[in-house]
Specification:
heterodimer; A: mainly alpha; MetI-like fold; 2 domains; two-stranded antiparallel ribbon; 12 helices; 2 strands; globular; B: alpha/beta; D-Maltodextrin-Binding Protein, domain 2; 6-stranded mixed beta sheet; 5-stranded mixed beta sheet
Chain lengths: 290, 263
């Protein structure tokens, strides 16, 4: 009963994985299931309870004040426009890089791979500072731009640059895993049947990796929406220009905790609805998100 | 299995380190407005030197953030605020046992050495194309800066629409004055209005300062208070006394502040 047996699986990408399984006595099995269930419930509670409490905290007046502030609507507009644009750029540029990392072998690939992940561990404030000293007036790139009559800091372009920088790794990671998991035989078949490379990519590869790309894009979009540190340092804070939702929440926090929390709830709610809607639409189109 | 054991061992080790390291030390928590940072660290060193076995843990942030933390029950012993209204609010809820004016500060105009605009006074801030950064309206210093512009407008000597012309030149509202001073030092904007105490330090040689006349200026007060729920009231009181003593005041003046007592 406690015999160990080796299960070896080979997936489509040619990767091998090995796992050891054994069949435990029934009592151990049910104890294990019970324990796992308890941990799962605790984990969900840990994630959900603070958010529920956040939603219950503000008074009706706080909510009203937040809902009628011009700050909220300006910030919502800026946030959704910039994070959507940033996500689009991330998909275009990150998608190409992810494909290359998944399909091609080249010298220094490991290094590129690690470098691409770095923005994830960098505190966003530091990212903002790095962008400021590069694209700022004294920076090598900023100086050139300045001499051509352009200044990035305090513009909406700076907001997008900051968001793209911090969210790229999230998308690249997901997209790369997606491209790696595609069954190459399907692409080969398509090519052998006479389809062009571009047609094969659009008709075979993209539909296969679509769920992963979508998951990566949602992750990147969410990261853009929540971006604060890099934005406030690099792009500054001005209502209607560079003030995104997190910046508006931070500003409100300095005057009225209740209003700040009310703004956060609006952001939380709208984001939740959008992501749900997106998953629903994609799910309805016949592609299931695994 | 081995890796699990390693993880458990290191967790235990970390736990024991955390509980042992400061067992005999008393930790005094001091929340202070960011603009007091340099002076307070120096005063803290002096205090720790005079009171062996005591360590001061500083918590520097905007006065409003610190206020929210105290309101939410953060274990703070001494609070130094740059916003006079906050202490009043704590007093009303009897959260503090004792309070006093700590120091005063004035606002000045700073101009970036990299600026190509010709800015020689408050009046030049309205010129077209001048890029101005102020602290946000929620920050006391940001409010005071706007009050100065309004007062200047009312004197009539700065021309029609002075206030709105200057406000129109604002490119960013920063969360604190340190960011205002830093970005102007970098040359990202031409000018801004900050406290005298923010125009020194590492940005001092990258900025030109222009005084603001006393009749327009806002003389602002820093207040210091002992929090009622302090776990070390006696220790909190002696740090409080140190700050108000001639020695403490000297440190604050060295940091660019004006003394609490005007002679």
């Amino acid at each position: 009963m406690n015999q160990l047996k080796s299960v070896r699986t080979v997936d489509n990408g040619g990767h091998q994985s090995e796992s050891w399984t054994r069949e435990p006595p029934a009592i151990v099995s049910s104890l294990f299931k019970g324990g796992a269930g308890l941990i799962a419930v605790l984990t969900v509670l840990f994630l959900v309870v603070p958010l529920v409490w956040l939603c219950l905290w503000p008074t009706a007046d706080d909510l009203k004040e937040a809902a009628f502030s011009s700050m909220l609507w300006d910030a919502m507009k800026i946030s959704f426009i910039t994070s959507t644009l940033s996500t689009f750029l991330v998909i275009c540029f990150g998608g190409v890089l992810a494909f290359m990392l998944a399909r091609y072998q080249f010298r220094g690939k490991m290094i590129v791979d690690t470098l691409v992940d770095l923005p994830m561990v960098l505190p966003p404030m530091v990212t903002g500072l790095a962008l400021l000293i590069l694209f700022g007036r004294n920076g090598p790139l900023g100086n050139w731009l300045w001499n051509h009559g352009m200044a990035l800091p305090f513009t909406v372009t700076a907001v997008v640059i900051a968001q793209v920088f911090v969210s790229l790794p999230f998308f690249i990671r997901a997209a790369r895993a997606g491209f790696e998991s595609v069954d190459r035989r399907l692409e080969t078949a398509s090519l052998l049947l006479g389809a062009s490379k571009a047609r094969t990519f659009i008709k075979i590869t993209v539909p296969l990796v679509w769920p992963t790309l979508l998951a990566g894009a949602i992750l990147a979009w969410a990261r853009c929406l929540g971006e604060f540190g890099a934005t406030i340092v690099f792009a500054g804070n001005f209502q209607g220009v560079t003030q995104t939702m997190p910046l508006a929440i931070f500003e409100a926090l300095q005057a009225n905790l209740g209003v700040a929390i009310a703004l956060s709830i609006v952001l939380l709610f709208v984001s939740f609805c959008l992501v749900m809607l997106l998953k629903f639409v994609i799910g309805g189109a016949g592609v299931t998100h695994s | 299995m081995r890796s699990i054991r390693t993880i458990v061992m290191s967790l235990l080790l970390l736990g024991s380190m955390a509980s042992n390291s400061h067992a005999e030390e008393q930790v005094l928590v001091v929340s202070a407005a960011t603009s007091l940072q340099d002076s307070f660290i120096e005063a803290g060193k002096l205090f720790e030197h005079d009171h062996p076995g005591t360590r001061i843990a500083f918590n520097f942030a905007s006065s409003n953030q610190l206020f929210s933390q105290i309101e939410q029950g953060a274990p703070v012993d001494v609070f130094a605020s740059a916003d006079m209204s906050l202490l009043k609010r704590l007093e009303d809820k009897s959260t503090i046992t004792e309070s006093s004016i700590l120091a005063r500060n004035k606002l000045i105009v700073i101009v970036s050495n990299l600026s190509r605009m010709n800015i020689n006074g408050l009046g030049d801030l309205k010129k077209k194309g001048v890029r101005i950064i102020l602290a946000g309206n929620q920050v006391p210093a940001g409010r005071y800066a706007r009050q100065i512009l309004q007062k200047a407008d009312q004197t009539g000597s700065f021309g029609p629409d002075y206030n709105s012309l200057v406000l129109h030149n604002i490119v960013s509202e920063e969360p604190d004055l340190r960011m205002v001073a830093m970005k102007i030092a970098f040359g990202e904007a031409d000018a801004g209005i900050v406290y005298v105490s923010d125009a020194g330090g590492d940005v001092g040689n990258k900025l030109k300062t222009i005084a603001i006349a006393d009749n327009l200026n806002v003389l602002m007060e820093y207040d210091v208070a002992i929090i009622k729920s302090s776990a070390h009231p006696a220790m909190a009181k002696s740090f409080y006394d140190l700050l108000l003593s001639p020695k403490g005041q000297e440190i604050l003046i060295k940091g660019g502040l004006l003394p609490a007592q005007t002679k």
